[in-house]
Specification:
Elements (H helix, E strand, L loop, with lengths): L3 E6 L2 E3 L8 E2 L6 E2 L5 E3 L1 H17 L1 E8 L5 H10 L3 E5 L9 H14 L5 E5 L10 H9 L3 E12 L2 E8 L2 E8 L2 E5 L11 H6 L5 E4 L1 H4 L34 H14 L7
Parallel strand pairs: 1-6, 1-8, 6-7, 7-13, 8-12, 9-12
Antiparallel strand pairs: 2-5, 3-4, 9-10, 10-11
Helix pairs in contact: 3-4
Bound molecules: flavin-adenine dinucleotide.
Length: 270
């Protein structure tokens, strides 16, 4: 069977341990992320793991790709330490301010420049923006099918995968021919942890950095200019709730709670 060419799109997301340090810029409405370390998000680790398991079963190549500012190489290196064969960073000031559509266009062009792929993996939704739009939009730009919410994946034939995906009240199984975009749920697998071998492996691997000119993209479709959506307003939610601890025996606490909820008219009078 033919070895598979796979691309895993990974987004640099703020390190979860520093989330309380992220602030909104009230003037621009953008997030102030300066000084916040980035990491490979957990759902992207699962997407990478799914690709690595297929490579182990069938052979082939796994490329990790990201669009982001300089410094994003760090998460591509992590992808390689975990087992990817190579990394590609799409980085250019012209990509800045991209909404999901312009991000997807750039990623799709990056994938085309690689020569296409049989399987293109995404997280179902990123840890921070969480729109879940980028994977399906890349599929649209490449004019190939996509499956989202993927929680199980098998190769069933030379050119076909079976994907089980989540719906509100259950699951649906589909068989789909390659090339296909697969947006996976975090629960699809338990990602491997980096090994010492990974630190050796990364030494001989390449991370290419492509600018908009390298890719020959249509500049009216990238960055802020190429973004059909605009953030019109953003707000920081200020919680005005007060916390109150009740003490006593459980039955006492329950009584006090009922009285308070009644006093606040959350519960009707007895
Ligand atoms: C109007 C507008 C302006 C914006 N301006 C900026 C800005 O100036 N700076 C900025 O940092 N962000 C900006 N953003 C946010 C940026 O568009 C999103 O971060 C990006 O499109 C991904 O969206 P998401 O997080 O909802 O991804 P989702 O669709 O939830 O992500 C799903 C999966 O897609 C893949 N993916 C997503 N993004 C990337 C990526 N960049 N590279 C590789 N794979 C990826 C990952 O596998 C991820 O798990 C802007 C958004 C809007 C709407």
């Amino acid at each position: 069977m033919k070895p598979l060419n796979m691309v895993v799109c990974i987004k640099p997301v703020p390190d979860e341990r520093f989330w309380d340090k992220i602030r909104l810029d009230p003037k621009t409405g953008t997030l102030r992320r300066k000084g916040i370390p980035i990491e490979l998000g957990s759902v992207e680790k699962s997407a990478l793991e799914a690709a690595l398991r297929i490579r182990e079963a069938r052979g082939g190549k796994v490329t990790v790709m990201s669009m982001g500012p300089p410094g994003t190489e760090e998460i591509l290196e992590w992808g390689i330490v975990l087992g990817a064969d190579e990394g590609v960073l799409l980085s250019d000031i012209a990509f800045a301010g991209a909404d999901t559509w312009a991000t997807a266009y750039a990623l799709a062009e990056g994938i085309k420049k690689l020569g296409g792929a049989d399987l293109i993996f995404f997280g179902n939704e990123s840890l921070d923006g969480s729109t879940g739009q980028v994977g399906p939009q890349v599929a649209e730009f490449l004019d190939i099918p996509h499956v989202t919410h993927v929680s199980e994946l098998d190769l069933v034939a030379e050119d076909t995968v079976r994907a089980k995906f989540h719906i509100e009240f259950g699951f649906i199984d589909v068989e789909v021919k390659m090339p296909v975009v697969l947006a996976v749920e975090k629960e699809i697998n338990e990602p491997r942890v980096p090994s010492i071998w990974g630190a050796v492996w990364v030494q001989d691997r390449r991370i290419d950095c492509w600018t908009a000119d390298d890719m020959g993209v249509d500049k009216s479709k990238i960055g802020l200019l190429g973004s059909p959506t605009r953030v019109s307003d953003v707000k920081t939610i200020e919680l005005k709730r007060k916390g109150e601890m009740l003490s006593g025996e459980p039955s006492d606490i329950a009584k006090q709670l009922f009285q308070k909820l009644r006093a606040e008219k959350v519960l009707p009078e007895a």
